[in-house]
From TrEMBL:
InterPro entries per UniProt: Homeodomain-like_sf, HTH_TetR
Annotated HTH tetR-type domain residues: 9-69
Keyword match NAD: no
Molecular function terms, GO-annotated: DNA binding
Keywords recorded for this protein, A-Z: DNA-binding
Organism: freshwater metagenome
Record-linked Pfam families: TetR_N
Taxonomic lineage from the root: unclassified sequences, metagenomes, ecological metagenomes
DNA-binding found in the keyword field: yes
Residues making up the signal peptide according to the UniProt record: none
Name of this chain's protein: Unannotated protein
Length: 205
């Protein structure tokens, strides 16, 4: 049986959590394997068992920084979709949820994702790790949309994975808007909500 830490996580996930925290606070230079080992109550060799070396640990943590919350949001949204009884209820849910996902509480996370993407420059292994997590996030985000599609609430001809990837790209790039106060005068979120609504429901009665 896997050991659980006070956080409730397995040893591997606890190491990863602490590494993510270190990067959040001080960047990659803030990752000290010895300190991570001490904080997670394991030997340094245990970290190398899971991640091979420091670079492998950083790659896993950076990929996690990019994808975190996507799965949580997807699962929560799927629960809400399952509670919908009609297309009208689902459409209202979508229009209500999207502004929340783009809200100020996610500003730091969006900036983190841009930071991670910048970190992949000229680092093929990290690029591959982040790419894998993006694929995983796309699959998870597609699930609630597929529920709606199976019930005939959104267009049958839509490629759901492409739609999920579009969402990931859009919400990540929203960090650019948040960098420049002048661009906030235009309601980008409302525009995206209308675009998503049209894309999903056009030609729907």
């Amino acid at each position: 049986m896997a050991i659980k830490h006070a956080s409730g996580l397995s040893t591997r996930d606890e190491i990863l959590r602490l590494t993510v925290e270190a990067i959040d606070e001080a960047g990659e230079s803030g990752v000290h394997v010895g300190e991570i080992a001490t904080a997670s109550h394991v030997a340094v060799t245990s970290i190398y068992h899971f991640f091979q070396n420091r670079e492998g640990l950083i790659e896993a943590a950076q990929a996690s920084r990019f994808a975190r919350e996507f799965t949580i949001n997807a699962n929560a949204f799927a629960d809400e979709v399952n509670n919908c009884a009609t297309q009208e209820e689902f459409r209202a849910l979508l229009r209500q949820s999207l502004p929340y996902f783009f809200g100020p509480d996610g500003t730091r996370r969006r900036a983190d994702r841009v930071n991670v993407l910048g970190s992949t420059y000229n680092r093929p292994s990290l690029t591959a790790a982040v790419s894998d997590r993006i694929v995983e996030a796309t699959i998870e985000l597609a699930k609630p949309l597929r529920i709606a599609q199976s019930k005939g609430w959104i267009r049958e001809d839509l490629n759901i994975e492409n739609l999920a990837a579009w969402y990931i790209a859009t919400i990540t790039s929203y960090a650019i808007v948040e960098l420049t106060p002048a661009t906030r005068e235009f309601n980008w979120v409302a525009t995206f909500v209308e675009a998503a609504d049209y894309l999903l429901f056009r030609d729907q009665k």
